[in-house]
């Protein structure tokens, strides 16, 4: 993995990549992006094959571009890849580890069937096929729509239409602003990301798919979560974020109670009797919102190990929530309890519009070091049988997974103090006590002991009395 922190401003621009006229690398794949507050993480896999299927890819670098695009006129088609590269800002250039022949050390030649040579374990550059993560902080400048006036695009004019007879040819792209009286119809700009590889000779490969990220205002972060745990489950709870939205639905219509009478009622003397009709219930007509509305606020939970506990310098990765899908409620259960380990949790609010999500800044973190203070279950159904010179004990095991063993306790009947008969737990569920005095009646109990430090001891089993012969 490659860690790359992008600066607030771009690193420059390059001309648009031309369509490949010869064998070049395929596109970066698994291209994904996540917006977390004022940060955007972009992740993709480096190409490892050429357009003809040969390997390794002729790949020296991968360039990542970004551009913020606002609303265009209704007759303006989206930018082509060439136009996007022309107007976009070059955010980063990722150098790729050169492919070499493992036997000669010379640059490897592409072959139709050969797999890419193994990467150099000492190299700090990412190899073909590896995942790369980039990180951009959204500055004010990055969120402003780009100036597309330099994009050379000429629009055809329909000379047969009277209204367009005198219309001039339009050069470049211009923004269309909605009326000030209805600002809520102004769709927010979007940040678009695109990546392309370049060969050793500088030829552009196949462009990646485009990624678009909404630039709406991020929701407010929720307060710090609370964390509690049991022997097998961690419970993370939090309060709603300020301004969180909830599902909106029409209130139920409260119709007056309907009373059906079997006795006809006469309206006037001499008139025919009538039966009261049920009152009319107002009906809600189906409707479609005029503008896209925000979805109910949901939440993502992120779990991490404190920085001081990390080993080495870990590569940057795209943050991923531990929950499989955004949470509608205010609670998440983590079934991966690990004792003697400190974990930290943060929660982000998720605002979605038309299937595109924007997450808030993280909540204040809550770190907890989990300690095993939970005793195992007590052994069950202890039984004793006396014999010549000994008492044999047997019991049902405790079901706990971290069980270290059992301690057998003994005391003289009827009211003696029970003391363990061993210093280290026994792992079997049977025990033969041959240390007692023949004819003396003893009381026995068994307790379970777990592997925690210090060890937790269960409640005692049932008591039994027995003596050796």
Q: What is the strand tally?
A: 24
How far apart are the first and last residues' alpha carbons, in Å?
A: 72 Å
Which residues sit in consecutive blocks of at least 5 with pLDDT less than 50? 1-13, 165-171, 175-183
Please outline the major beta sheet.
Answer: 4 strands, mixed
Radius of gyration: 36 Å
Percent helix, as a range, is under 10%
Give the CA-based shape. elongated
Tally of structural domains: 3
CATH topology (fold) name of the largest domain: Immunoglobulin-like
What does this 3D model show about the protein?
This protein has 1 helix and 24 strands. The chain is an all-beta fold and 469 residues long. The protein has 3 domains: 1-215, Immunoglobulin-like (Sandwich), CATH 2.60.40.10; 226-240 and 293-369, Immunoglobulins (Immunoglobulin-like); 380-466, Immunoglobulin-like.
Topology (elements, then pairings):
Layout (H helix, E strand, L loop, with lengths): L1 E4 L23 E8 L2 E7 L15 E9 L11 H7 L1 E7 L35 E7 L52 E9 L12 E4 L11 E4 L4 E4 L27 E2 L6 E2 L23 E7 L26 E4 L7 E12 L2 E4 L6 E4 L10 E8 L2 E7 L6 E10 L6 E2 L9 E4 L8 E9 L13 E3 L3
Parallel strand pairs: 1-6
Antiparallel strand pairs: 2-3, 3-6, 4-5, 4-7, 7-8, 9-10, 10-14, 11-12, 13-15, 15-16, 15-17, 18-19, 19-22, 20-21, 20-23, 23-24
